[in-house]
Amino acid sequence: VQQIGQMIGMEAELDRRARGLTADAKQKISLGRGMVREDVNALLFDEPLTVIDPHMKWELRTQLKSLHHQFGHTMIYVTHDQTEALTFADKVVVMYDGRVVQIGTPEELFNKPEHTFVGYFIGSPGMNVIPASVVGQVASVHGAEVRLDRAFKDLSGKVEIGVRPEFVTLTKGDGLPVNVRRVEDVGRHKIVRADLFGKEMNIVAPEGTEISPDMNRVTFAPERVNVYVNDWLQEGEAA
């Protein structure tokens, strides 16, 4: 009890009644109550850090992960905060419209979203999803070609390509034409908000990148472009 009380920063309050505590203190007590028992194999956390201040969130998240490695309990953590999910979990389950659309590591969810919702939900900004037609190793977007690293055939239905903003390059030369609307400097990098054939396109540029008015084209790293049919990832064939 003392160890858990210290972990949640409540060791000085352990002899007080819960009704006299603040809302975030009650949340921390609820969090600790499930961890003091030694006869459990799994713990379910349902939005456990909702009303806790941001600094304490980071601290508790780190300590929860440490306890998980120390005691080996299975921890099921329900959250709508993607940062919590990606920093806390070994495996993440993403649900959409009442069904599981992907189970994987944070890296798998980022690099290979199996559903367009996963691509949109994981990442900030989320994955760019662009209507296209795909034949072989070429995707066509309003007549402009995008090279792919895999070959596809006989795709029918709603065909789209997905590429994360981190793998989009803003250039002056070849590529798809874009209209840059604004540039947001968030410190670690710049987020370029642009229009691509009337559809929003987000680009993440490294900090220090000079964005000039004549940079009005984008290119994609072929190995980072995913192909989707009716929102589901298609594997294709190695070229």
From TrEMBL:
Transmembrane segments: none
SUPFAM superfamilies: MOP-like, P-loop containing nucleoside triphosphate hydrolases
Family: Belongs to the ABC transporter superfamily.
Record has ATP-binding as a keyword: yes
Native source organism of the sequence: Tritonibacter litoralis
PANTHER family named in the record: ABC TRANSPORTER ATP-BINDING PROTEIN (PTHR43875:SF14), MALTODEXTRIN IMPORT ATP-BINDING PROTEIN MSMX (PTHR43875)
The protein, known as: ABC transporter ATP-binding protein
Sample GO molecular function, one term: ATP binding
Alphabetic keyword roster: ATP-binding, Nucleotide-binding
InterPro entries, sorted: ABC_transpr_MalK/UgpC-like, Mo/tungstate-bd_C_term_dom, OB_MalK-like, P-loop_NTPase
Keyword Ribonucleoprotein assigned: no
Domain MalK-like OB fold: 123-166
Gene Ontology cellular-component annotations: ATP-binding cassette (ABC) transporter complex, substrate-binding subunit-containing
Cited Pfam families: OB_MalK (PF17912)
